[in-house]
Design a protein that fits this description.
This protein has 418 residues and is of the alpha/beta class. It contains twelve helices and 22 strands. Helix 5 crosses helix 7. The protein is globular. Bound molecules: zinc ion.
Length: 418
């Protein structure tokens, strides 16, 4: 089997890997770098590619895939949840960044029509390759992908969370033997704080904000994080109103149709039943006037209803904004977190609302990531990707030292044979 690194080399973004065996070549992910002007992985001619296999729906793994589908010959393989969620996210991507993208809505339609879905633990064939998905625990439908060609086996972690959350089970641990592992490195240098402590701190904070008469805005990604936050509040018996807005509501509908991909679908259903859905501007204008929690995309305050709520709530010190995910440098969310500034009436303005950060990451922290990788049998070679440069290098060093195996923080364009 031959593997070529096309992206996600020493950075988070544009994940893409070309895997070839005999006459069959496939792409594992084909994602975008979701900066203001998006970036893309190295290109491979569509006629060389038989299929794209998506690890999960996030745009840094799926966002450049539509360019392969206009000819109608390439197939997309993913879990059914990933197929629906990636289509939803790419539609939004076209709306926001369409002028910079090398594909249009019609390409996405063609991609949707070329999709073949597979559940976890259901091996399938693409030409000379045999593939299988395992739950990655990162977002609903996310998977670790196994690719077998001849006597060799490659594992690709995609994005992985070894710890369970309220929404999802932990990643699948029995991954067997491999000759090569392509692993994410997002948090390879840091452990997350203990989850139960973060949850308690967050719920205490929400209660305190409401008891002082304020509104708590939680800008949250529509896939996974918005539902997780609502479930944390519900699980802790939160007594005050919680509402949800934007694309998260569409995602809720999809998730409730694919219950086997959730840890406790009944808990999600009850949580959402107790959550008010905000769908009109009259609702949005009135909800900011009463003490409550508003969970709304976009997670980095770039587009979506969270921008409106931020503008309405930022000026009053009774209110608060809880940042619950990583904020990319240059986004409004990052500026708010680092400098306490937001744009009001076109001007950077000091925010009076209290701003707090909570670590609800959906990636494995350092210890569990390394522990899980060490469980892969067969002394595989590791390629560390999808992390800042120092994270990729550090993870490769640790794996090499602890396991005595070859481990490389790869660069784009590097090719390997196993
Ligand atoms: Zn992801």
């Amino acid at each position: 089997m031959d593997v070529k690194v096309l992206g996600a080399a020493r950075q988070v973004g544009r994940s893409a890997f070309l895997v070839s065996h005999k006459e069959t070549s496939i792409l594992l992910d084909y994602g975008a770098l979701t900066t203001k002007v998006p970036g893309f992985p190295m290109h491979v001619q569509p006629k060389q590619v038989r299929a794209i296999v998506l690890s999960h729906a996030h745009l840094d793994h799926s966002g450049a895939a539509p360019i392969y589908f206009l000819g109608g010959k390439v197939k997309l393989h993913s879990t059914p949840v990933t197929a629906e969620l990636s289509s939803l996210l790419i539609q939004d991507f076209i709306k926001i960044s369409g002028q910079y993208l090398p594909f249009e809505f019609i390409d996405l339609m063609s991609m949707n029509n070329s999709t073949v879905s597979h559940g976890y633990l259901e091996p399938f064939q693409i030409g000379d390759l045999t593939l299988e998905f395992f739950d990655a625990g990162h977002i609903p439908g996310s998977c670790i992908t196994s690719v077998e060609g001849g006597s060799k086996r490659l594992l690709y972690t995609g994005d992985i969370n070894g710890n369970e959350t309220n929404l999802l089970k932990p990643s699948w641990k029995s991954l067997g033997e491999a000759d090569m592992v392509i692993t994410e490195s997002t948090y390879a240098t840091a452990d997350h704080p203990e989850r139960s402590a973060v949850e308690k701190e967050f719920v205490d904070f929400a209660n305190a904000v409401i008891e002082r008469g304020g509104v708590l805005l939680v800008p949250a990604f529509s896939v996974g994080r918005a539902q997780e936050i609502a479930m944390v509040l519900y699980n802790h018996g939160f007594k005050h109103p919680v509402s949800m807005d934007g694309m998260a509501l569409k995602v809720n509908e999809i998730l409730l149709r694919y219950q086997e991909y959730l840890k406790d679908p009944e808990l999600l259903r009850r949580t959402l039943e107790s959550t008010e859905q905000l769908v009109s501007w009259s609702q949005r204008r009135s909800v900011v006037k009463r003490p409550s929690v508003i969970v709304s995309p976009a997670g980095m305050l770039v587009g979506g209803a969270s921008v409106f709520y931020n503008e309405r709530l930022a000026r009053d010190e009774k209110n608060a904004i809880a940042i619950v995910s990583f904020q990319v440098p240059g986004t409004a969310g990052r500026t708010l977190l680092d400098k306490g500034l937001t744009i009001l009436n076109g001007k950077p303005t000091k925010v009076k609302a209290e701003v707090r950060r909570f670590d609800f990451s959906s990636h494995s922290g350092k210890s569990i990531l390394i522990d899980d990788l060490k469980k892969v049998k067969g002394s595989p070679m590791f390629l560390t990707v999808h992390g800042e440069e120092e994270s990729c290098i550090s993870l490769a060093d640790v794996l090499h030292q602890d396991m005595g195996v070859e481990a490389r923080a790869v660069v784009a364009g590097e090719e390997f044979h196993v």
